[in-house]
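FORM 7B: Structural annotation worksheet

SECTION A. Query
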Amino acid sequence: MFDAHVHIFDPRFPLAENDGYLPAPFTIADYRKRMSRFDIRGGAIVSGSFQGTDQSYLKAALTELGEGWVGVTALDLEATDDEIIELDRAGVRALRFNVKRAAADITAMTLQALRAHDLVGWHVEVYIDGKMLTSLQPVISKLPSFSIDHLGMSADGLPYLLDLVDRGARVKATGFGRVNMNVANTLRRIHAVNPAALMFGTDLPGTRAGRPFRDSDVDLICDVVGTDMFAVLEDNARAFYRLPKSPPRLPHRDNSPTLPLRRDQLPALPPDDTIPLPIIER
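SECTION B. Predicted structure
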């Protein structure tokens, strides 16, 4: 599995309140413990509003997590080309437009996103209530590549979201406890428009969500997309983040040869383990 949306709140690095709220620590060790029953082969660490434009925590997290992990960051609008290139070398692969939680100069962010795409191929990940998608249309139409967080958040925005999916947008199948919609129906409709669009993520630790990720969320995705479950759980996101494909998944087979044994090679049972059969008289 590839977890395309994780937040790490490491107390070693600075955090800032957002709307008077500060998240509890959620470290890489906490994440690994929570997901220990799953075969996680990589993922995307996403900068939240509490982290502002700090890059120190993200660089440290990507170094500790290693191969298969990438970063999604909020970047200072004054960041230079050299800073963007340095972050790309550290494993950052996308910019985040946090339209829902943070005030932003959308025009300046769009220009920065276009510059980052030209420099290192980054895409944009948009955190927005789907009802606002139409108002963001002039911006989104300029982005070469982008995804929408948390299924677009609301059922009211689904028609606009599906239109974007039809034009190549990706959608994170994340945050089921923070959305206002029928999740199964939304997953089904997005998948029907473009089977390459959906990308699974836990959204852990689920800060300010109605409920955090549940293991049963994975079962729901698999039930909806059926035989495309490996694409949604891993392959779509790995392609979007420009990572190598995972090794082929082969069914387990025991191909050990069965060798015939001669009678004199059969193990002998101790005498006490041999129970004589009674004589049956006819």
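SECTION C. Observations
Residues 13 and 57 are 6 Å apart (CA to CA). Confidence is low (pLDDT under 50) at residues 252-263, 269-282.

SECTION D. Sign-off
Analyst initials: ____
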